[in-house]
Amino acid sequence: MPYFTCMDLFQFSNYSLNPYALAPAVVGIGIALLGLGVLIREQWSSLSIAFFGMTTAGAVWLLGNAGVYLARDPATALQWGRIENCGVVFIPSLVLLFALHVVGKLRRFRAGVLGAAFLSVLFCFSVLFTPWFVRGVKLFPWGYFPQYGPASVPFLAFFCALLVMSLLSYHQEYRLALAGTRKRRLGTFLLAFGIAYLGSVDFVATFGIPLYPFGYLPVFLFLAITAQAIWRYRLVDITPAFAAAQILKTVSDSLLVFDHEGVIRVANQAACDLFERPEEKLLGRAIWRVDGNFFPRERFEAFMRTRVIHNFEAVRASSLGRKTVLDVAVSGIRDEFGQPAAVVCVARDLTERKLAEEELRRVHDALKRSHQDLKSAQMQLIEAAKMESVGRLAAGIAHEVKNPLAVILQGLDYLDGRIPQPTEEISMVVREGKNAVRRADTVLRGLLDFSALRSLELEPSNLNAVIEQALLLVRYSMEQGHVQAVLRLDENLPLLPLDRNKMEQVFVNLILNAIYAMPDGGMLTVVTEAADGRVVARVEDTGTGIPPEALSKLFEPFFTTKPVGKGTGLGLTVARSLAELQGGILEVGNRPEGGVRATLAFGREKSRAKRKEKNPAD
């Protein structure tokens, strides 16, 4: 049959049921519905029209394919074969059109798209009215199938070239796109079209090779992936006209556009609400005649002279007397010759924000005063508790400093220089004596620093060094109480922002409490570790533990389990306050195996320190 006619297509006797026709028919209907749905959802934007054209060509291909399978005779099958290939020849040019539109290069390659569309029209003419493209049909086990002629060879080259161009366009734009919705949409389209082009396997059977044309399967996958992508990311037509229309519809700020004489040419609904006038009573009037206080004529003329983007605040009173504070932004639009064409004015209602800022400022001032009062009270409480700690340490310090340290050190230096040919034992005794004097001096200086009145002075500090200094201060109390210390300190702790003296006070308090809880001696264990973004220190003892009824009152001021005269009940209260001021959390409880465990946790790591600070007493 040398030309196309549709006279016999409506004779039902020319068809018979064929299960092979079901799959391409279902997929063809599905892709047609997808294109129609996108067209409606995207409100006939140019991008959705391009997508609809592409899916329509695919639907014609698959539905024509189903018609070929259902035909009982070669003549009817040939007519459907021509219809099928009318869709096929437009697929590459329409896919290229859609791809260039998606990546934003349609304007740049407009001539190429028009050329591709012209070639598709020529191939379609060849399909319908000559035997050069579809020369006949052949019967296969699945039914009739079109057979290509010599005109199909340039078409296949055309098909492959546009296939490569489309995929390259997606790939290049995907590589350049920043992470976000656009990149994900491009990546999904690249995958979907890459799979869809596997449908070109159907061309094999057009040359008489008995390979079942399963091209509808890749198209089905394309349909599923594309539908999911459009459902999640939509097809966004980002032309200026579309963007401007959407902005005017959705923007909540009042938007006005004046011409070079100050006459209102564009006004959105928010502007109509602001000036309490319908759109027709705003358009065509000079802005200063609508409201001279909002935008006086002098301000407009000054802007037209300078053409500098300008922001100012304006106050507008409604007809009911309600005042609205507005932040007004003004910018200019130039024509293609660089001359002033229009002025854009955007007014944002700041009334609620101004009221909220004023209320926030008032609350902030009140909170600031309360915080200062609380901080002052905390510091007074801390200093009072510090005096208690100093008193408890006085006996131990007296044993370290009751003899004049300077005289001892001078005497040792004198002996070291006067003894002729000292033995190794004598030298060791003198050396150890000097070290002992220096350690005592270190303890004294640490106590003076500890008791000095000061506010928080935060600096990056190693928690291990703070603990070791605190242990040095309570060494005498530990010796007198027959308490042994076991240290398990993580050498890879991060540095923390601490006031070292204040944090030493926290650990001195915790350690002294542990010593007091072990009147007959025992084991004091101090552990530090860093894990899961937290730095934790634990002080554990093997003492008698805390009575259950006292656990809930440990941090109450002036509550103590010690006898009268042995404590003020401020130690743990002050320790917790100090810990919280430095970003820590202090918890105290009984250990299951006996004794008490005090846990001090800091939640933020500042920096990694792969070193351990040297003990000042070493």
Q: CATH fold name of the largest domain, please?
A: Rhopdopsin 7-helix transmembrane proteins
> Could you name the ranges where pLDDT drops below 50 across 5 or more consecutive residues?
237-241, 449-453, 605-618
State mean pLDDT (0 to 100 scale): 80
CATH class of the largest domain: Mainly Alpha
Number of helices: 18
The SS-based structural class is alpha+beta
> How many domain regions?
3
Largest sheet features: 5 strands, antiparallel
Q: Indicate the CATH architecture of the largest domain.
A: Up-down Bundle
Give, in spatial order, the strands making up the sheet with the most strands: 4-3-7-6-5
Q: What is the helix content?
A: 40-55%
Radius of gyration: 44 Å
Strand residues, percent: 15-25%
Total number of strands? 15
Q: For the terminal residues, how far apart are their CA atoms? A: 106 Å
CATH superfamily of the largest domain: Rhodopsin 7-helix transmembrane proteins
* CA-based shape: elongated
How is this structure best described in words?
With 618 residues, the protein is an alpha+beta fold. The protein folds into 3 domains: 7-238, Rhopdopsin 7-helix transmembrane proteins, CATH 1.20.1070.10; 251-349, Beta-Lactamase (2-Layer Sandwich), CATH 3.30.450.20; 457-618, Heat Shock Protein 90 (2-Layer Sandwich), CATH 3.30.565. The chain is 52% helix and 16% strand. It has helices at residues 22-41, 46-70, 74-103, 110-129, 152-176, 181-196, 216-233, 240-250, 269-275, 287-290, 297-306, 351-401, 405-418, 424-451, 463-473, 475-480, 500-516, 571-581; strands at 134-140, 143-148, 254-259, 264-267, 310-317, 323-334, 340-349, 459-461, 483-488, 494-498, 522-531, 534-540, 584-590, 596-602, 607-608. The strands form 4 sheets. Strands 4-3-7-6-5 form a 5-stranded antiparallel β-sheet. The chain has a 5-stranded mixed β-sheet with strand order 9-11-12-14-13. Strands 8-10-15 form a 3-stranded antiparallel β-sheet. Helix 12 (351-401) packs antiparallel against helix 14 (424-451).
